[in-house]
Write a structure and sequence with these properties.
The structure is a single chain. The protein has helices spanning about 1-25, 25-50. The chain has two helices and no strands. It is elongated and about 40 Å long. With about 50 residues, the chain is mainly alpha-helical.
């Protein structure tokens, strides 16, 4: 239960980083979006790892 809650919080935080990064111009916004993307992709990796 706690694990699912942590995954949900990390996913929402990553989505917020991607959206907020889109509003910021320059490399700072790009870096913010990349951090959010890394969060989303790491969650996908952890989810798919148990089905291999």
């Amino acid at each position: 239960m706690l694990k699912k809650l942590i995954y949900a919080v990390v996913f929402i935080l990553s989505m917020v980083l991607v959206v907020k990064g889109n509003l910021i111009d320059g490399y700072t916004g790009l870096l913010t979006m990349m951090i959010g993307l890394i969060g989303i992709l790491s969650e996908l990796h952890l989810y798919n790892k148990k089905y291999q």
